[in-house]
Specification:
Layout: H1 10-18, H2 23-26, H3 56-61, H4 68-79, H5 87-93, H6 101-105, H7 115-130, H8 137-146, E1 167-168, E2 176-179, H9 190-202, E3 208-209, H10 219-223, H11 227-244, E4 248-251, H12 254-266, E5 272-275, H13 276-285, E6 297-301, H14 315-322, E7 327-329, H15 348-351, H16 353-369, E8 374-377, H17 380-387, E9 396-398, H18 399-404
Parallel strand pairs: 1-3, 2-3, 2-4, 4-5, 6-7, 6-8, 8-9
Helix pairs in contact: 4-7, 13-14
Bound molecules: iron/sulfur cluster (2 copies).
Length: 407
């Protein structure tokens, strides 16, 4: 019989999980508390009760296997060699919208890792063993062949800036870069990049763009588990910055912002990263921008999961809106840290479109309940989700584009 006398038990065993750091060990550690999906307090260790609805796929399917907890436990069995990768496992792993709510709620780790990291690690493992799933293959190929998930030819990148008279990297030495994001050359993402450029010009900032040399930040590669592609893009982007002597990156899309913050952590933070809303908020405080025109409108702000829970940017968009005369800002019931996901992340619109749409419809229902006339967002992915709802949705606009009217 195997001698088990030295095996840690009880709390010791749990502690071993809690403080595990390696990738394989990261797949252990859930203590089955249920905080990441249950309808009780968000986290029993906190005073704030938090939301009743937490994980979008669980709320949609209402099956235990779709909870963050189950993703963790299922992945744990695969990492420990107990279960194979099955179609059922993949269905669950790829229904995660990457909303980061479980990361916010799960209190068992002290190293910054959480249930969502397990999902991403499992996606990396699946890609390594089997390649991307069919629904994500075109995104993978787009990144490999064109450096963007939408397979836009490299020569067509940067078209969003036509006619704006912006400097391109190499035209003149400037230490600030406006990073537009791949969505800037798509209909639903263009407005934020154009508006940010106009606002930065107005604030007197000297900055450059990458134009047709811009590559994806790597968001899709990171979140869908294409680790090699992510590393390639990260290294390319960091080399571009270093060669150009860039000290500050201002990002137009809330989802790109999350990845640029990742870069800054790894690169030792030798450049500053800020989202356009943070830049504008600062410019208003420093009197470099002034909102002089009145806009009489009742609006609500949808916190993007990546800019909100991913980067902790909650106050800047709200203080910009408070600085505009005439604006009435009304909050949705689930806001800031507890904001509901639009369903647009994690490759879910491609892998599980019914779930993605359901999540966006639920968010729009909540927006309508505020009585607002307009929903403002700060991420191209959220813009895309709401635009897909068409006539059933309230009008939606990028926050940066909206504030241009008040200059
Ligand atoms: S990131 Fe969001 S969708 Fe994914 S498991 Fe966590 S709570 Fe669920
Ligand atoms: S993943 Fe975290 S929050 Fe969810 S049940 Fe496990 S320990 Fe609790």
């Amino acid at each position: 019989m195997k001698d088990e006398s030295n095996k840690p038990v009880g709390l010791e065993r749990v502690k071993k999980w809690l403080y595990a750091k390696g990738l394989a060990e990261r797949s252990s550690g859930c203590v089955l508390c249920g905080s990441c999906y249950g309808h009780g307090p968000a986290n029993p260790m906190e005073d704030i009760p938090g939301p009743k609805t937490k994980c979008p796929p669980y709320e949609f399917y209402r099956f235990q296997r779709h909870t963050p907890k189950s993703r963790w436990l299922m992945a744990q069995r695969v990492f420990h060699g107990l279960d194979p990768i099955t179609p059922e496992l993949k269905e669950v792993i790829y229904s995660c919208t990457n909303c980061l709510m479980c990361q916010e709620l799960c209190g068992v780790r002290d190293d910054g890792y959480g249930p969502w990291d397990i999902t991403v690690a499992m996606r990396e493992e699946i890609t390594k063993k089997e390649g991307p799933i069919e629904a994500h293959r075109h995104l993978y190929q787009g990144l490999q062949q064109h450096d963007n998930p939408w397979s836009q030819p490299k020569s067509a990148r940067g078209a969003w800036a036509d006619g704006l008279g912006l400097l391109k990297l190499g035209d003149k030495a400037a230490t600030t870069l406006l990073f537009a994001g791949c969505s800037a050359d798509q209909a639903t993402g263009r407005s934020s990049a154009v508006a940010l450029a106009r606002l930065m010009q107005k604030a007197g900032e000297e900055f450059t763009i990458l134009g047709d040399e811009e590559k994806c930040c790597g968001l899709y590669a990171f979140d869908l588990g294409f680790r090699d592609e992510y590393e390639r893009l990260r290294q390319n982007n960091l080399a571009t910055l270093a060669n150009a002597g860039i000290r500050k990156v201002v990002v137009a899309c809330g989802s790109c912002q999350r990845i640029w913050r990742e870069y800054a952590k790894v690169a030792g933070a030798d450049f500053e990263v800020m989202h356009g809303v943070e830049y504008i908020d600062q410019a208003v405080l420093l009197d470099r921008l002034k909102f002089t025109k009145q806009i009489r409108k009742k609006v609500t702000y949808h916190d993007s999961c990546h800019l909100g829970r991913g980067c902790g940017v909650y106050q800047a968009p709200r203080s910009i809106l408070r600085a505009i005369p005439g604006i009435e800002l009304v909050e949705m019931e689930r806001n800031q840290r507890w904001a509901w996901c639009c369903g647009g992340g994690g490759g879910v619109p491609e892998a599980d479109p019914d779930l993605a749409r359901w999540s966006a419809v639920d968010r729009m229902r909540e927006a309508k309940e505020t009585g607002a006339e307009l929903v403002l967002t700060s991420s191209a992915l959220c813009q895309r989700s709401f635009a897909a709802l068409q006539q059933t949705a309230l009008p939606t606009q990028d926050l940066l584009e909206f504030v241009c009217q008040a200059l």
